[in-house]
Amino acid sequence: MSRNGHKPRRHAPMGTPPTMEVNLEEIAGVLERAKGALSAEDHAKLTRAMAALASTTQIVAELIAQLQGKKTSLERLRRMLFGSPTEKTDEVLGEERAGAAREDAAVSASADGAAARKRAPGHGRNAASAYSGAEHIRVAHADLSRGDACPGCPQGKVYPLEPPAVLVRITGMAPLGAQVYACDRLRCNLCGEVYTAAAPPGVGREKYDASATAMVGMLRYGTGLPFNRIEQLQKAMRVPLPAATQWDLVRGALPQLLPAHEQLIEQAAQGTVLHNDDTTMKLLELTAEQRAAALGEDEARGRTGVFTSGIVSIGEGRKVALFFTGARHAGENLAEVLKRRAAQLPIPIQMCDGSSSNTAGDFETLLGKCNAHGRRKFVELAELFPEQVRFVLETLREVYKSDAEARTRELSPAERLRLHQRESAPRMAALKEWMDRQLTERLIEPNSRLGEAIRYLQNHWEGLTLFLRVEGVPLDNNVVERALKRAIVHRKNSLFYKTLNGAKAGDVFMSLIYTAELNAVNPFEYLTALLRHPLELAERPSEWMPWNFHLTLARLGAGPDPPA
């Protein structure tokens, strides 16, 4: 009882919405009767909203059924809400997890279960051969050499044994080091003349060596570290390097590196297969004039986005990665690259996803579509439609196995095409027949998420199956998606570029760094060589590509390390 004698009121729990049953057929009928009172645009909007509501209702109903049936573990619920952490077929379908659980149970039942667990060969360790960038030091035996008498037996003689015993020692250091030279000075006590010791060769002309600029570029655009974080790290290492100085180094290096970047674009234009895609980017000071210069006055009026496009060109055993940041989409940037293509070359193969912004405009290409992109739409539905998704993923898994076999056997493009026509063509035909039957026989709701995933494959079927008709067509666009992770890491860590000039610096460094990595070249060594030979690079940029710059250095009698 309260002080005034009245019973306290019991309020309904806050935040609990009233329950209301939704009949989608009745709402559809209301929408149809209201068609005459609505404009065509308003009716279309409500129709799309109705379709979205139907799809959402189906998902919620499935989720509630799973929870009420007590068939959903926390792990299953997480995968239903957020998807699988990996897109591997075994993991998505739960096969690998189930197999691992059975193995764990068997091991636990064993008396010596700990011993039964076997570590994968080499797991967690890198072989000594992986440290190709390390300093290799040959250590001679302190007491013995070739031909000496064996200490263990008087009759034998020792001889060298290959390979030697190898030890790996890893040490730490600051990303950028410094040397302070104190040059002795002597002064005559009679005439006052001062004599200063000569500095070592190469010291004193510039405070910052080319290798310092290359390392800043690697940290900033190769790994995504913002300038201020590099500044904090260097300050802690007692070798300070302010963020403003880092930008001055990068900006000063840009004119020296542009000839190499232009040559990369020239080389990419001649490629046999060109992958392209883009990701969003933020550019703070992109003016209307700059946008109009890139797109044209008419096109610029309706465009507000900023993107980083990635292009990976493959041809003659070489790979070139290019990045372009600005108002253009990936297809428009690809068209700019293809303007440099030699007229006598055949039509190139283009690989991208189904977005219309990726097409190359007026330039003709053999357009292939990304199977991984279409497959991903089914991966996201594994918990809602397990049996249908299983059929699609297992079918595509066999196609990818055939492609992996072609790589393992190092088949030529013609041999790879025949392999896919023999093994993959029947699988893809069965997949198409299955998809057609799902929709024509109304086995699934066409407006559901599964229906949308099926229609995506159907709409892009010609491009998705181009690898069955044309030599050299890849299955997916994964190579450029991996390249775009560089731009995505930059966006997550640094959030934005300030100006178009800053974006240009990022594009040039990223293109040079990632192209070097794609061709198994040390990018730091490559950048350093370019910055040490700006005149030679400007005169003959074709001789300073990642695949041939070592030959050019040898011809010049130079090396990647600073001169002695």
Write up this protein.
This protein has a domain at 372-476. The protein is built from 22 helices and 7 strands. The longest helix is centred in the N-terminal third of the chain and has 29 residues, at 40-68. With 564 residues, the chain is an alpha/beta fold. A hairpin with a 6-residue loop joins strand 1 and strand 2 (194-196). The chain has a 5-stranded mixed β-sheet with strand order 5-4-3-6-7, with helices on both faces. It has a two-stranded antiparallel sheet with strand order 1-2. The protein starts with 23 loop residues before the first helix and ends in an 8-residue tail after the last helix.
In short:
The chain is an alpha/beta fold. 49% of the residues lie in helices and 7% in strands. Residues 12-16 and 97-117 have low confidence and may be disordered.
Number of strands: 7
Share in helix: 40-55%
Q: How are the strands of the largest sheet arranged?
A: 5-4-3-6-7
Rg over CA atoms: 32 Å
Oligomer: single chain
Give me the secondary-structure category: alpha/beta
Shape: globular
- Residue windows where pLDDT falls under 50 for at least 5 positions: 12-16, 97-117
Order of helices and strands: HHHHHHEEHHHEHHEEHEEHHHHHHHHHH
Strand percentage: 5-15%
Task: Please tag this protein with its features.
two-stranded antiparallel ribbon, 22 helices, 5-stranded mixed beta sheet, 564 residues, 7% strand, alpha/beta
